[in-house]
């Protein structure tokens, strides 16, 4: 290739690349309203964004992977935790942690109820933006670290694909227990996003280590408010009616309403719920 051919090739390549970039840019802007749920940007969402910036949340947290990395990415936090949990947490984060055990906590921002509600609306809007599955969730925890906003803090490479302790489930096993483990990890939202299976590793929900034994103890307690008669039906009740029994003073409910989503009874089939119960019943 002589100099003239090389120059023409460079010019042609630049033109083609520029046209491709321009076309992709135009196509991206064409899709932005749909991908970002622009129709759902209410005054509350806009004000919530202002609250986010006013309190410098980005100095510790990230959205869509952008921001500081001291604390967890909050892109999908509204889906993983729910509005009730986030509102209670933002009102007083200290109630959700033991500072001596979990080291530095998220500071109390002293926001008004309106600011908190609108910030949650903003995070809810963010969680529904089509971000093509990034950042990946859930982060599975096999240790006791807990990060701000109730999200798990990964411990030495345990994020993502780390196996969870529990009943052995050989590859290809189609037993109810094995299928229940799959439901535990892949339901929406995933149980593993809020519950650890490690003793003492409290996340947005309590550790489920020993949950079958605790279930039997709970239904035998005078304080039990539900309708279950044994550990299995208690586990079933806890999944489909999480507010049937709550523990006063615990950080997982407020005013008798559990922070756990009450949608699993509709989102999971009866067979999936039975499989999940069979899996959880192995943790004694």
Automatic annotation (TrEMBL):
Alphabetical list of PROSITE patterns matching this protein: CYTC (PS51007)
Keyword Heme on entry: yes
Domain of life of the native organism: Bacteria
Protein name: Cytochrome C
Pfam families on file: Cytochrom_C
The UniProt record lists the keyword Cytoplasm: no
Residue ranges of domain Cytochrome c in the record: 43-127, 175-284
PANTHER family: CYTOCHROME C-553-LIKE
UniProt-listed Gene3D superfamilies: Cytochrome c-like domain
Keywords: Electron transport, Heme, Iron, Metal-binding, Transport
